[in-house]
Design a protein that fits this description.
This protein has 398 residues and is α/β, with parallel strands linked by helices. It contains twelve helices and 18 strands.
Amino acid sequence: MEKPDTIAIIVAAGRGARAGAGGPKQYRTLGQRAVIAWTAEAFLNHRDIDAVRIIIHRDDHDVYEEAMAGLLAHPKLMPPVDGGAQRQDSVRIGIESLEANAPAHVLIHDAARPFIDAPTITRVIAALQTHDGAIAALPMHDTIKRASAGALIDATVPRDGLWRAQTPQGFGYDKILSAHRAAQGEVLTDDAAVAEAAQMRVALVAGSPDNMKITQAEDFGMAEILLRRKVDEMEYRTGHGFDVHAFEDGDAVILCGVEIPHDKKLKGHSDADAGMHALTDAILGAIGEGDIGDHFPPSDPQWKGVASNVFLAKARDLVAAHTGRISHCDVTLICEAPKIGPHREKMRAALGEILKIETARISVKATTTEQLGFTGRREGIAAMATATVALPQSEIKQ
């Protein structure tokens, strides 16, 4: 990994006793997925998060792998780290585990907040450009009472200037690492309190009312309602792409980012990766952003010989700009030769790394035309691709 700008830590080492029976709340099912999977996906799919590290209990490795099965191959997911006795210990251990990566910033988030959204993450990261730290929070609107023993009201607390702290909470990496080390042995309620104790300047940014923390057993009922609404607010779109390149003299072809020895190469303005070109067009089509020629015209000499991962990364970033996510990709390569099968898994891995999605969401397959047509005559290679993209309805252009 290149030196990252921002790494997210998800704290998932707690036992969650207040959430009732059923095991730790982060591994309990919410809409047929574990809570922690919903939480992790939000950070893994965010364009400004370079990597995600999850802090788990030392006894939870098996249940973690089961809960995260669909995300374990995600190129941005780092191996989990065992936490400590208390949340504060777990966060410090997680931050220390990133010393070799030395990110500029770190975001810290509770696994039990599965409805964190991309705009909130973006606001926290943006505030770190001018502050030592920043947290998502909501201003208090309810009247606040202070009570004594027996739940008798002692006083009404002025709510002016009071905020409800949420996560993620973001900080400059070096400063929060020092602050957590200095706070060992103290009991502080959140990471912002650790930062405050170290005289760090911490900003408040707008959180989201939906960014609830599952704490009590009854919170799962509200979470199911929020999840249904979240699903209803997403629209799934499918795009289709097709590309053709002829053979010319050479000794290898590049398909889906993998170089395959062959007695010919593919002719094109760029590296002529037909599979990646078709997939790029499919993604662009799903979000209504034209085609590859609109963004990278072949008449422009700057794209001559360029690697096609540049094109695919651009399509990926455009999806993120719409706060969408790539749900699934399917590429079919049509040729008599070379043989695709031996290289299929490497192709899936290459595409997953560029798109920053797990390989379980990527299919690569091959077929022939039974020696019919130009591919049957071994004059070139064709590729077809489909891509499914989830977009918030608020982001869909009219």
